[in-house]
């Protein structure tokens, strides 16, 4: 989230789909080569000589779900600490090396991981790997650096949450309402109180436990040779010692059996907003990919059901967006319980109850009747196009390969995603709508402009 809430309200930035890729979509396979070092660090390489550049993603298997209780936002805070320099490389050197050569770098924290991404000319691969190994080995831990980054995170919270309309309630607040376990429900962005309570020793311990090589995956895609990359990674990372495996949190959730609702006020909003969410199956379930397709069909883009029915048709909404895993990425960037979230702005001449009833009626119609095969085909084709476009972008491909390896233990699983999307059937869509998108499993937050808000939360 450094430099703004990267991918917090949209999917990861995609490249342009190259000519002919759509036609060959069913045949194109992403090359993958994998090596695991003795210290547990795993490296995934995708060789692509289309340009003399590369993308790299270093994924650490720690996110909001694994941060310590009483330390909300700690994983996010630590993401910022990784840019504060090391005993060998002063603050700012990492970004200057990359950006000085025409590249870019960033970092983000999500539910199940923190990633550090960069892209640059291939000549910069050696120094970038050295710097990544250097900050995996040790950071410049100091009270000054910790205070500085606490202040930076607080400013992010002010800008993105406290002082803007709707304040990301369609992520942080709806998760707190829908989920039951603290790991899934708490605000991973962080609270001022918990940030202030974080001590330097906490930061050092966090780095030792979670930023160990055996808890990391490196993805590299571009104009590289896998064997040469493996040698470089061995050279710079092999001497970093493994650490005991981090604790594994129990994050499993069951579907809700009674609807949940809340009314909030918003001093910055000019029209009311609505967040509606349903608990969904975990990745690996037979219903997970169909749920992603259903989310796209319902709320993503001008062709979606909710846009056509409630924005253009009934004209009770001003805008609508959402999907499975939205707004923190997509269904491919989750490795635990997730929500199918709908965010809408509705017209003041209606109310939240009418909007929710209209959404639920559309869902129940799909559960009964399904959708036309042509509509399902159009939806899955759009998702395939987006997927291939993203994979043409080397930095996005490196990131997705690292995530696939971290989540499934098999980076080549990325090549099964197109078939999984294409094989979703009308019956799958009906089953998912009937099973998960029920009134009993639904959580709703009505976010009203302050002047129009009721005195008490809705029941």
Question: Can you offer a commentary on this structure?
Answer:
By secondary structure, the chain is α+β, with helices and mostly antiparallel strands. It has two domains: 33-237, Cytochrome Bc1 Complex, Chain A, domain 1 (2-Layer Sandwich), CATH 3.30.830; 260-452, Metalloenzyme, LuxS/M16 peptidase-like (Cytochrome Bc1 Complex, Chain A, domain 1, 2-Layer Sandwich), CATH 3.30.830.10. The chain is 39% helix and 17% strand. The protein has 16 helices and eleven strands. It has helices at residues 74-81, 93-100, 125-137, 143-162, 172-178, 182-185, 192-197, 200-210, 226-237, 288-299, 305-313, 352-369, 373-392, 394-408, 417-422, 426-436; strands at residues 33-36, 42-47, 53-60, 104-109, 114-121, 216-222, 260-266, 273-280, 317-324, 338-346, 442-449. The strands form two sheets. The chain has a six-stranded mixed sheet, sandwiched between helices. It has a five-stranded mixed sheet with strand order 7-11-8-10-9, sandwiched between helices. Helix 3 runs parallel beside helix 9 (226-237). It is globular and about 60 Å long. The model is unreliable at 3-26 (pLDDT under 50).
């Amino acid at each position: 989230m450094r430099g703004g809430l990267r991918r917090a309200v949209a999917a990861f930035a995609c490249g342009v789909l190259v000519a002919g890729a759509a036609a060959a979509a069913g045949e194109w396979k992403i090359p993958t080569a994998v090596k695991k070092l003795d210290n547990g660090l795993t490296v995934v390489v995708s060789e692509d000589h289309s340009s003399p550049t590369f993308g790299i993603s270093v994924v650490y298997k720690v996110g909001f779900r694994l941060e310590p209780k009483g330390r909300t936002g700690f994983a996010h805070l630590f993401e910022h600490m990784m840019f504060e320099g090391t005993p060998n490389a002063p603050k700012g050197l990492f970004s200057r090396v990359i950006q000085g050569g025409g590249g870019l770098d960033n970092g983000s924290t999500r539910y199940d991981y923190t990633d550090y991404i960069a892209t640059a000319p291939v000549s910069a691969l050696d120094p970038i790997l050295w710097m990544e190994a250097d900050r995996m080995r040790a950071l410049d831990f100091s009270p000054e650096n910790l205070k500085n980054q606490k202040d930076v995170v607080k400013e992010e919270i002010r800008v993105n949450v406290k002082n803007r309309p709707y304040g990301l309630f369609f992520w942080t607040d709806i998760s707190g309402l829908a989920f039951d376990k603290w790991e899934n429900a708490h605000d991973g962005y962080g609270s001022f109180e918990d940030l202030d309570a974080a001590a330097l020793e906490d930061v050092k311990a966090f780095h030792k436990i979670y930023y160990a090589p055996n808890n990391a995956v490196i993805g590299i895609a571009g104009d590289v040779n896998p064997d040469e990359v493996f040698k470089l990674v061995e050279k710079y990372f092999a001497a970093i010692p493994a650490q005991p495996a981090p604790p594994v949190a129990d994050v499993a959730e069951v579907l809700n059996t009674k609807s949940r609702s809340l009314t909030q006020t918003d001093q910055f909003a000019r029209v009311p907003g609505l967040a509606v969410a349903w608990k969904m199956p975990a990745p690996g379930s037979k219903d997970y990919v169909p749920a992603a397709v259903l989310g796209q069909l319902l709320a993503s883009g001008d062709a979606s059901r909710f846009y056509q029915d409630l924005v253009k048709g009934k004209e009770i909404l001003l805008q609508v967006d959402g999907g499975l895993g939205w707004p923190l990425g997509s269904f491919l960037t989750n490795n635990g319980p997730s929500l199918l979230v709908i965010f809408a702005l509705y017209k003041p001449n209606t109310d939240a109850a009418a909007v929710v009833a209209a959404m639920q009626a559309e869902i129940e119609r799909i559960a009964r009747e399904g959708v036309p095969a042509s509509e399902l085909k159009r939806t899955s084709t759009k998702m395939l196009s987006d997927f291939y476009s993203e994979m043409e972008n080397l930095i996005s491909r490196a990131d997705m390969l690292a995530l696939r390896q971290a989540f499934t233990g098999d980076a080549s699983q990325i090549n099964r995603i197109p078939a999984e999307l294409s094989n979703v059937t009308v019956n799958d869509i009906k089953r998912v709508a009937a099973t998960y998108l029920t009134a009993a499993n639904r959580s709703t937050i009505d976010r009203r402009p302050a002047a129009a808000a009721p005195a008490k939360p809705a029941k």
